[in-house]
Known about the structure:
single chain; alpha/beta; Rossmann fold; Calcium-transporting ATPase, cytoplasmic domain N; 2 domains; 7-stranded mixed sheet; 44% helix; elongated; binds adenosine-5'-diphosphate; binds magnesium ion; Heavy metal translocating P-type ATPase
Amino acid sequence: STMPPLLASIANAGRHGVLVKSAEALERLAAADAVALDKTGTLTEGAPRVADVLPLGGEDRASLLALAAAAERPSEHPIARAVVAAAREEGLEPAEARDFSSVPGEGVRAVVGGDRVAVGSPARLLGRADGGPGTVTADDAHERAREEAERLEAQGRTAVVVLRGDRPAGVLGLADRMRDGAAAAVAALAARTGRPPVLLTGDAPAAARRTAEEAGITEVEAGLLPEDKVARVRAMEDAGARVMMIGDGVNDAPALAAAHTAVAMGRSGSDLSRRTADAVVVRDELEAVATAASLARRARRLVV
Ligand code: ADP
Ligand code: MG
């Protein structure tokens, strides 16, 4: 072909399912020598379903699900969608919630009926026995909720706790499927950069480690807020790496912006992450990222 190598390889990457936005973006893709990736919606499909409903403290299954769904209904988060869908599948119509608010990396709060309700991260809502952030309490119901959450997380589930007032009403376990080809993509990216890819996630350590293992990832940073993801990317860059960050969520946008090279998931990804990115994986096939990086390298060799 008579097409200049850069344009030819942008076109070629496009055929492999990666939309590279410019020649500069291609150059950054070629230069990346480390990979950081998000878990939910990037490594996994990001469409979790409620797999476990564990009522506590005299709550019953239906009232627990209905309560959680009422508080989650205004939220766009994949966990919220899964909880609302699970309630509907059981024929429950969630009540109207008032004073809704959502906290990134934590969950949602609302008033349902006369009760203050919170649904979200066990580490943030229950506190930790190890003296970490949150309210540490020796209370039995809290202890039970913590135990159930840990048991679910050890199975690779994302656990969320439901509080009615200050009392745990139960714990929900969410299961998310690994993307097809995730392990192959991780291996290809590791081979390309010569370093193990790092998983950055807001999910709990145990759940994250389980998913990481399945994908062949050994480096895991869990329990991260969006700004913590930024800090991790910056730390890698300060240590001399040119980081390719791959993410999908609104919560990944700051880390994408901080990274040398930003890659967004096209289908499941948020508008914000797509706009921030150098390259977009149009069919959400992670392996295409490694292919595009190889094409970018080859184009650079031809040009330089
Ligand atoms: P990730 O980095 O894996 O994409 P997020 O930052 O979106 O994750 O969420 C991190 C954690 O915050 C979740 O695992 C969950 O515990 C909690 N969380 C966030 N939003 C919600 C919500 N709407 N309902 C329940 N829990 C939530
Ligand atoms: Mg995500």
